[in-house]
Structure formats: structure tokens, C-alpha cells
Write a structure and sequence with these properties.
The complex is a heterotrimer of chains A (about 180), B (about 280) and C (about 575).
Chain A lengths: L1 H24 L2 E2 L6 E2 L2 H32 L5 H18 L11 H31 L3 H38 L5
Antiparallel strand pairs in A: 1-2
Helix pairs in contact in A: 1-2, 2-3, 2-5, 3-4, 4-5
Chain B lengths: L2 H4 L8 H4 L2 H17 L3 H17 L8 H21 L3 H6 L4 E3 L7 E2 H26 L6 H7 L4 H30 L10 H32 L18 H22 L11
Antiparallel strand pairs in B: 1-2
Helix pairs in contact in B: 3-7, 3-8, 3-11, 4-7, 5-7, 8-9, 9-10
Chain C lengths: L5 E10 L7 E8 L4 E5 L6 H9 L1 H4 L3 E9 L2 E2 H4 L1 H5 L2 E4 L3 H4 L5 H11 L4 H14 L15 H13 L5 E5 L7 H18 L2 E5 L3 H4 L6 E6 L2 E6 L1 H5 L3 H4 L6 H8 L20 H13 L11 E10 L8 E9 L3 E5 L6 H9 L6 E6 L2 E2 L5 H5 L2 E4 L12 H6 L9 H14 L15 H13 L5 E5 L7 H16 L3 E5 L3 H7 L2 E6 L2 E7 H5 L2 H6 L6 H8 L5 H18 L2
Parallel strand pairs in C: 3-8, 3-9, 6-7, 7-8, 13-18, 13-19, 16-17, 17-18
Antiparallel strand pairs in C: 1-2, 1-4, 4-5, 9-10, 11-12, 11-14, 14-15, 19-20
Helix pairs in contact in C: 6-7, 6-8, 7-8, 8-9, 18-19, 24-25
Chain lengths: ~180, ~280, ~575
């Protein structure tokens, strides 16, 4: 039990570092001008599934806060909390997916996709815009439009890249189970 | 990019630097919340004053943070533009009156209310800026974990933050060498590729990154356990500094600002200061 | 008689995921204050043995334990990692994984923080321990500002704050250049003398560890103890060779010269080696018996670099005015300490960075306007860590990746991939998942994945890092075969054996400049070059001098030729 808690501490730290590096320095054009694919949500989906809701929430929270701080402003809390919610929601709904046991077949891929879409829709279409309206009194039309874009983009990223990563990772686990001494 | 420059830490001696990390973190949070809750122009201007004074006290020069400043100003400008684009009447809806300053086609008339609203929104973001920059640039990253634990966050979570700061440069370096090796094999993330290919290629770069990161998690957690991390319910901090008089004063100021801002803002039951009626 | 500080009795261990026990019936007693070297090839169980001592087994790597293990009076398999960590300090192989703090001071203090030590006391202990490992003037430095050797000192200090009785080093030389490795061994020796700690070093680089004396060598093989002897005794047997450990080069040379190596010669260290005049004469006679090997004719240049300069920051050049030329079919080593500009050079050649000044030509063609991909079809670049290159789960897909976007038909791709897999000896595994391969096989996959693009030259970053003698030989023989088929091979390396045995020519870099372009034997016999490139003088040089050979460089060349002869025709 104790062992797991240390591992979670480290996973949160490394996960947040990955989230930061990908979110801050990796720019993949999405095709829509001035918007980039946020690959960090694929990693967030994967790590949340592996390490659970608390780790997922913390990775989203710490990673996103660090990104905002590094751009040099106060964190945009509404969106930071949305990232937190993505991690928490994926971690909570996906905690039973057996990636770490090396199982990630069709059924798991579909479950992973559905979970990530739900989590991203909740986060970007509900939490982020509602908080934006509450805190910053921004026009509803604007924040929901932004939220919808983020929800679609991040869902696609999480589902396509996240599932590819999970599938590949689970294969590396499966290979290990049958090892004989070399 | 070095750990210290991830968040642009600028070491020197100043009133702000001498405060403990805990104080700066707590003040930063209190101040940000005060700024988040209020939309009262008078309060915002007051907070802006405090913010600028704090910045002067830090002896950090504007040119050292020019990059951050420019980035945030561009961001604010864009945001104002979008706010206006999506609803040019948000000001009127909030303040209840309509004084047209400039007639534009369609619904895009510029009203005094909208301009005032945009001024407030900008102010609201802007007041947090100096304090945020201060928090980042005047706090030694080594003090972050201890500071978090100082405001009551579990030391395990605090340590996660420390690990993130510690390994960001390593992961960044890994990412670069991985993506260069992939580029040499024709794996591109640029606009020339169709979207789905771009996503698949991204997965190809992320896979080695995440696998090596997962391996790293194992090594680090073993190393930490071998050195007794998590043995006790608490731990001490090599880099924590004791509270001094100024720390208490600054914390009191932060609490007073938050309380004052709440009282002034909400005493009339409205978050907005309305000069139009 | 004192009681052992560590005692294995009929001890066996089997990892949960493996079919057979990794350790079998280990009986071993280590006395307080002893210095023990645990040697053995990869997979021999030597690291597993170490993990049993510090408690990672069975607590972090679960499995089944049989028999008894007592460490400093503690029943190790049942005690837990925290309890054992007060008795055993472990310095892990990966210095970055173990360096957890943001600065040196914090990292040394880590264990003290966890033990809730008051801050004043903590600062005092950190200062004292830092002094012991000679890192006291870097307490404020961040890990990336330190060299590998300095990071290792920090790791050592970090475990020594606990006043442990046993210090365990897991492959301490794996990530260090030869000069830093030498210093590490000296430091371990010094600390052992000062503190009387029991020291256990797990390492397969015997000669490098024996730079300072050890009391006993425990040789592991296939999960069992194959030998447990004093170094002088063990080195007089042929057990090392039989178990895939490289013996010190000066001993190999002695054997070639027909000198019978016995414990009486005190063969454990070159400085204690006591040869009589007759034996020295034998060495000299062997040296003079052979004619100097013919020098290969100079080849037509393939890569020509002229006056190349580059800096990441405008005021600090990483490379200054570098010029050299590499001929078709050559096998060349690029050596120098970390930060000398070697990796930057390969990045410039591959087009990942753009030079500030100078020109590069490949096969007579100016490279200035070539894209990264165009360069990649001429020059393949292989990273040190295969895990950073592999992006697919199946071998076939991984190798095919580089030619997918070239407009070939699926049939042509298959043909090219299969041909490459045959060259690399991977054809039988073409449908395997990569995760089932060993580290060395993965390395081959990465080499295959650049070869498939048809380059005339490949650049490898530390191709042999972290590998034991057998895997080293496999990879290097494979590269030699590729070379024989016409591929020019350039290796960035710290590995002195590699230089001696495989690359006739070495380019030496120091502080952004190329300071020498010589034969590997000349470089390793030149004290100044050796120091500036963070290498170590080869023990063959010392042997030649002590035997009164007047041309030590020629002696080293003679050894290389003889060694190659033995390898190709069997010894």
C-alpha cells in the first residue's frame, strides 16, 4: 500500500512534467488558424487511467498551473480546474481498465474513448465556460464556443493518441509476462 | 532549459525575495482570489496599486520580464477582441444602459458600457499579472514544495510539484532527441500532413517518451523509497525558512485585501461598480 | 572471529514474472569492512543479489524468497525497505533517477528530511557529508549543471547521511566516462578507508574497478556463485573468460606473450604486477616478433567538414572551427568529455541544427541545402538509448517506418525491410513484438530502422553503453560486418576497448575544438590527450613501459593486431 503511494507521488510529478513539456513546447497545428492540438490531454487520459482519479486530477492541476505560470500570468483558474476535472473524471471512470495488466483490446479501446469524450465534454463544455462566466463575466456565446472547440479538439486527441499509446503500452506489458531468463 | 528558468526565477536581494515562499504563495492566492471575486472598478484599481507597489519592491526590472509581459498583453488584446466579437452588448447587459460611441454595421456598435466592461475585464486580468510574475520570479523553485506544505497541502503533493520542476528539463531534452530521430525518418507534425497522420505521428513520438517516463517513475520511486520517503506523516525541509515579522505583515495585508475587496464589492449586492446610473 | 555483516544461507529468489529462479542456493558471507566486487555478465543475477541486500527485493520487485538473508542483524526479506535503508546505502546506476532534489544540497538532505531531522542539524550533516565526497562547493547547483561523476558523488552523499554500515554500488561505472570512473573508484576507496564501511560494488568492468584494490571478487553466473576468491587468485584462472567477463588487458597481453599468470605475479592491479626479468623479456620478444601491420590506404573522402562553428548562445560557441574528413568505408571514433561538442557535431551533420559558419560536403555534394530527410537517406543517426527511438510495437513496422513516405509499393517496402532484417540478423524475429527483445536486439532494430533508408554512413551515439562483454562483442562485430559491406561507421564513444579494438582512427574533441586526429592507440598513450578527452591511459601502455618496451604505441598496436587475430581465428 505504502509503495503505491510513493509511486503515485512520482507519477503525479512526472505526469505533470510531461503535461507541462507537451503543453508548453509542442505545437501541432490543428488546421484551424492559431489553434494547436493539445497532445498533453492524451497523456493525461492515459496516466489518469493508470494511476486513478486523484493522480489524474493532480497531474491536470499541477501541469496546467505550471504552464500558465510559465507564460507569465496568474493561472486561468477556470481552465486549470477544467484540466483537473478531465484527469479526475477519466481516472474515476477508467480506474477499472486493465492497461497495466497488459489488456487493451477492442472493448477497452471503446471504453477508453467513451470515457475520455465524456470527461472532456464535462470539463470544457460545462466546467470551463460556467466558471468563466462566474469569475470573469465573459459573454456566454464566447466561452461556450471556446469550450466546444476545446472539447472537440481534446476529445479527438485523447481518443486517437491516447488509445494508440495505451494499446502500445499494454503490449509492452504483455511481452514481459512470459519472459524466461535470458 | 534549466529548472530555474522553467519559471524564470530571478534571484536577488529584495523585500519580496526575503519573504518566505509560503508567504508569497499565500499572498498570491489571497490576492488572486480577491481579484477573481470582484468586478468593482474601484477595488480593481486599488488592487492594481498594491500589485505595482509590490513589483517595485521586488527590484525586478521590466525588461527582465518583457517576454511574459508582451505575451500576456497580446493574449489580453485577443481576448478582448473575441469578447467583443461574440457579444458587443455584454456591457449593456451588465450595466443596463446604452451610450453608443461609434456606429458600426450590424450589431457591432461600440458602446461606452462595452468599453468600460472591456476596461474592467483587462484590469481584472492585469492586476494579477505583476503579483503572478513576482511569485514566479522571486520564489526559489526549491522553496515551492516546502511552501505548499506550509499552507497546509500534504507534503506528498508538495513533493510531486518538486519532482515536476526537477524533471521538466530532462523530459524536454528527451522529447527533443526523440522527435529529431523521428524527423530523420520522415515523421512530421507539420501542416503538410493530413490531420489523422499528424495525430498518429504524434503518438509515434509520444510512445518512446511515455515509455521512458514510466520507466523513470519506477527508478525514482525506488530511489525515494530507499531513502525513506513517506516513512513518517510529516517531514522537515532543508529549504524552508522561518517566518519573520514581514511575513506576518504581508499575510495580514493579503487577508485584509481579500476581506476588504469582498466587503466593498458586495455591500450593495452587486459585483459591478456602475458609473452609468 | 567476527560475525558477518551480510550472510546469505541457501538463498534463492524467483521473480513473479519469470519461469526460473534468478538466484539459486546462494551461500555468501561478507565481513564488516570488507570490499567486495560482485561481477558477472548481464542476466547472471548480480543486480538481483544487490536488490536483495537493500530490500527492493521482495518489496518493490515481488517474487518468491527461499532461504535466509541477514543484513547487519536484520532479517532482510521480512524487514522492509525503510528499516534496511538505515543499514544499507544504495547508489543506483542511473544518476538522474536518483538525483531527486532541485539542487545538490536538497538532494543530499533528502533522507534527513524524510527522517524529520531538524533543519540546523540537517544543514550541518549535509555540509559535512558534502565535504567527504568533495562536492561542498556545488551545494546550490542544479543537476543539469553537474557532470555524471558529480551527480554520482551527490548520490553517494545522499545515502551516507544515514551513517549506513554497508554501501552498495549498482554498476557505478556504467554512466561515467573513463576519467570520472577512475575518480569514482578512488573516492569509494578513500571513503571506505576513512569510515570502515563495508563496500559492495556490482560491476562487470573488472579492470576499472581494480584500479583500487578489493578484498574479494564474487563471480556470478546463471544465478549461482561461480567463484568467490581473492582477485589475485581469480585473475590467475580462466574463470572470467569462461563466464563472459573481460579480464584486464595487460593480462591478456601477458598471456599472448606466453607468460604464465599466477597469484605470485600479483596480477590484480597493474601497479602491483611483479614480473621477473625473464617474463619481461618474453613480453619484449613477443612485441618484436611481429612486423608492423600494413596501414590501410587513404580512402576517397565521404564526409568533409570545413571550418564548422556553432553556438546555442551567441557568446558561447559549442563548436569552434572544426575541420576533418572521413573516408568511404572508414570506422572512426569521436571521443571527448561530455560537453566537448560531440553530440552537437552529430546534430549539425544530421541537420537538426544549422551551423553558424563553415561547410559540410557529403560525397562531394554541399549539404547546406539538404533537408533533414535528405540527409537521413545518406547518413543514419542512431541514438544511445534504443527505447528513445522505437515508436512501433512490431519489428517490421518499426523498420518500415523510415521508407513509408517514399512512394514505394507495399511489395517494395516488404522487400527492402526483409533485406535489412536479414543483414541485421533479425529476420527470424520479423513478426515479433519489440517488447520481447533484449536490449541488444532492440539496438539492432534501431540500426536496422536507419539502414533501411540506405545510408552510406551511420553515426552511433555510445553504441555499447551499459552492455556487458558479450553484448558489446555482438554489437561491435555486427557493426564491423556492416562496415565490411561498405557502410562508413562513426561512433561517439567513451569506451576505450571499442576504440582499441574496432576503430583505427579517433577524433578527439575538447571544449568545442578538435584537438587530435590520430590512431586510437596513439590517443590512449598520450597523457595530455587522455586527460583532455576524459579517458584513461590504457594499462597496455603501463605494461609496455614496465617491460622496457621503447615504443609503447607500437606495442599497443601489436596487441590490437594479435587480439584481432585471436578473435577471428579462435584463440
Amino acid at each position: 500500500m505504502k509503495k503505491n503511494s510513493i509511486k503515485t507521488v512520482v507519477a503525479v510529478g512526472i505526469g505533470a512534467a510531461l503535461f507541462f513539456v507537451l503543453g508548453r513546447f509542442v505545437n501541432i497545428p490543428s488546421g484551424i488558424p492559431n489553434t494547436n492540438i493539445s497532445v498533453q490531454y492524451a497523456i493525461l487520459g492515459m496516466l489518469a487511467t493508470m494511476y486513478g482519479p486523484v493522480a489524474g486530477a493532480l497531474i491536470g492541476f499541477i501541469g496546467h498551473t505550471l504552464i500558465d505560470l510559465s507564460w507569465g500570468g496568474a493561472p486561468w483558474w477556470s481552465w486549470v480546474l477544467a484540466s483537473t476535472a478531465v484527469g479526475a473524471a477519466v481516472g474515476f471512470m477508467g480506474r477499472k481498465l486493465p492497461i497495466s495488466e497488459g489488456v487493451f483490446g477492442k472493448k477497452e479501446i471503446i471504453a477508453f474513448a467513451v470515457i475520455n469524450v465524456i470527461a472532456n465534454v464535462i470539463a470544457w463544455l460545462v466546467i470551463a465556460p460556467v466558471l468563466d462566466i462566474a469569475i470573469y463575466a465573459e459573454p456566454a456565446a464566447k466561452v461556450f464556443a471556446q469550450g466546444a472547440m476545446a472539447a472537440v479538439a481534446n476529445s479527438i486527441t485523447a481518443v486517437v493518441i491516447g488509445a494508440l499509446l495505451c494499446a502500445a503500452y499494454s503490449k509492452t506489458i504483455a511481452g514481459k509476462g512470459t519472459l524466461d531468463a535470458e | 532549459m534549466a529548472a530555474k528558468t522553467v519559471l524564470n526565477y530571478l534571484p536577488r536581494r529584495s523585500f519580496v525575495h526575503d519573504l518566505t515562499g509560503t508567504t508569497k504563495l499565500a499572498f498570491f492566492l489571497l490576492f488572486t482570489f480577491a481579484g477573481m471575486l470582484t468586478y468593482d472598478t474601484r477595488v480593481l484599481l486599488g488592487l492594481l496599486g498594491v500589485s505595482l507597489l509590490a513589483f517595485r519592491a521586488s527590484r525586478i526590472r521590466v525588461k527582465e520580464i518583457r517576454f511574459m509581459l508582451v505575451f500576456m498583453l497580446v493574449f489580453l488584446l485577443m481576448n478582448n477582441f473575441f469578447v467583443f466579437l461574440f457579444n458587443p452588448n455584454q456591457g449593456t447587459e451588465i450595466y443596463g444602459t446604452r451610450h453608443v460611441l461609434l456606429h458600426l454595421p450590424g450589431r457591432f456598435a461600440v458602446t461606452a458600457e462595452e468599453v468600460f466592461y472591456l476596461f474592467n475585464i483587462t484590469l481584472k486580468y492585469f492586476i494579477a499579472l505583476p503579483v503572478a510574475i513576482l511569485f514566479i520570479s522571486a520564489t526559489d523553485p526549491s522553496e515551492f514544495a516546502a511552501s505548499l506544505s506550509g499552507i497546509g497541502v500534504s507534503y506528498r503533493v508538495g513533493y510531486s510539484v518538486a519532482i515536476a520542476l526537477r524533471y521538466i528539463p530532462d523530459i524536454q531534452r528527451d522529447y527533443h532527441s526523440i522527435s529529431q530521430a523521428q524527423q530523420a525518418r520522415g515523421v512530421e507534425l507539420g501542416k503538410k500532413e493530413p490531420l489523422l497522420t499528424r495525430l498518429k505521428n504524434a503518438a509515434g513520438i509520444l510512445l518512446p517518451l511515455i515509455l521512458s517516463s514510466l520507466a523513470r517513475i519506477d527508478v525514482i520511486s525506488n530511489a525515494m523509497e530507499l531513502r525513506g520517503f513517506g516513512k513518517d506523516k510529516t517531514r522537515t525541509w532543508y529549504r524552508r525558512r522561518p517566518f519573520e515579522k514581514n511575513d506576518y505583515l504581508v499575510l495580514a495585508l493579503g487577508a485584509a485585501l481579500l476581506a476588504g475587496s469582498i466587503v466593498i464589492t458586495f455591500h450593495d449586492g452587486n459585483r459591478f461598480y456602475n458609473p452609468f446610473i | 572471529m567476527t560475525t558477518p555483516i551480510i550472510s546469505f544461507k541457501d538463498f534463492s529468489f524467483q521473480y513473479r514474472a519469470q519461469k526460473r529462479p534468478t538466484l539459486q542456493e546462494i551461500n555468501l558471507a561478507i565481513m564488516p569492512g570488507e570490499r567486495i566486487l560482485i561481477a558477472g555478465p548481464s542476466g547472471s543475477g548480480k543486480s538481483t543479489l544487490g536488490s536483495c541486500i537493500n530490500g527492493l527485493i521482495p518489496f518493490s520487485f515481488p517474487g518468491e524468497v527461499k532461504g535466509e538473508l541477514t543484513v547487519d542483524g536484520v532479517d532482510a526479506p521480512r524487514a522492509g525497505i525503510f528499516e534496511l535503508s538505515a543499514h544499507v546505502g544504495t547508489v543506483l546506476q542511473d544518476p538522474d533517477g536518483q538525483f531527486i532534489g532541485l539542487t545538490v544540497g536538497e538532494d543530499i538532505a533528502f533522507a534527513l528530511e524524510n527522517a524529520c531531522t531538524p533543519q540546523d542539524e540537517m544543514k550541518e550533516i549535509v555540509a559535512r557529508t558534502a565535504k567527504l565526497v568533495e562536492i561542498e562547493d556545488r551545494l546550490e547547483s542544479a543537476p543539469h549543471e553537474l557532470s555524471g561523476g558529480q551527480k554520482q558523488r551527490v548520490s553517494l552523499a545522499g545515502v551516507m547521511v544515514d551513517q549506513v554500515k554497508v554501501l552498495l554500488f549498482d554498476e557505478p561505472l556504467a554512466n561515467l566516462d573513463p576519467a570520472a570512473g577512475k575518480q569514482a573508484i578512488e573516492l569509494i576507496d578513500e571513503i571506505q578507508r576513512k569510515t570502515g564501511t563495508t563496500v559492495i560494488i556490482i560491476e562487470h568492468r573488472l579492470e576499472d574497478v581494480l584500479w583500487r584494490s578489493v578484498d574479494r571478487i564474487v563471480l556470478m553466473s546463471e544465478g549461482r556463485i561461480a567463484a568467490d576468491m581473492r582477485p589475485d587468485e581469480l585473475l590467475s584462472t580462466d574463470l572470467l573468460k569462461a563466464h563472459g567477463i573481460r579480464e584486464p588487458l595487460y593480462l591478456t597481453a601477458l598471456r599472448y606473450a606466453g607468460v604464465d599468470v599466477t597469484p605470485a605475479l600479483r596480477p590484480a592491479q597493474i601497479c602491483t604486477l611483479a614480473l621477473c626479468e625473464a617474463q619481461k623479456e618474453k613480453v619484449r620478444a613477443w612485441f618484436q616478433a611481429a612486423a608492423a601491420g600494413e596501414k590501410a590506404a587513404p580512402q576517397k573522402p565521404l564526409l568533409e567538414v570545413r571550418h564548422l562553428s556553432f553556438g546555442y548562445a551567441p557568446d558561447r560557441p559549442t563548436l569552434r572551427d572544426v575541420s576533418f574528413s572521413i573516408g568511404k568505408g572508414e570506422m572512426v571514433a569521436i571521443v571527448g568529455r561530455n560537453g566537448a561538442g560531440k553530440s552537437t557535431l552529430s546534430k549539425l551533420i544530421c541537420g537538426f541544427e544549422t551551423p553558424d559558419d563553415g561547410t559540410m560536403c557529403f560525397d562531394g555534394e554541399d549539404m547546406a541545402d539538404m533537408s533533414i530527410r535528405e540527409r537521413a537517406s545518406r547518413i543514419g543517426y542512431v541514438l544511445q538509448n534504443p527505447n528513445q527511438m522505437i515508436s512501433k510495437t512490431m519489428i517490421y513496422d518499426e523498420v518500415a517506418l523510415g521508407i513509408r513516405r517514399r512512394g514505394y509499393t507495399e511489395e517494395q517496402i516488404r522487400e527492402k525491410v526483409e533485406q535489412t532484417l536479414r543483414i541485421c540478423g533479425l529476420y527470424p524475429f520479423r513478426n515479433w513484438p519489440i517488447s520481447a527483445l533484449s536490449f541488444g536486439q532492440k539496438k539492432r532494430v534501431t540500426i536496422a530502422s536507419v539502414l533501411v533508408m540506405g545510408p552510406q554512413m551511420i553515426i552511433l551515439d555510445e553504441p555499447t553503453a551499459g552492455q556487458d562483454f558479450q553484448h558489446y562483442t555482438e554489437i561491435m562485430e555486427f557493426l564491423r560486418e556492416l562496415n565490411a559491406q561498405g557502410v562508413t561507421v562513426v561512433m561517439i564513444t567513451h569506451d576505450m576497448h571499442l576504440m582499441l579494438e574496432y576503430t583505427p582512427r579517433a577524433l578527439v574533441f575538447s571544449e568545442g575544438e578538435m584537438i587530435a586526429d590520430r590512431s586510437a592507440a596513439q590517443v590512449l598513450c598520450d597523457g595530455i590527450l587522455v586527460r583532455r578527452a576524459a579517458l584513461k591511459e590504457t594499462s597496455l601502455f603501463a605494461l609496455a613501459k614496465s617491460c622496457g618496451v621503447d615504443a609503447p604505441e607500437a606495442f599497443v598496436e601489436r596487441f590490437i593486431d594479435a587480439d584481432r587475430e585471436v578473435r577471428t581465428h579462435g584463440g
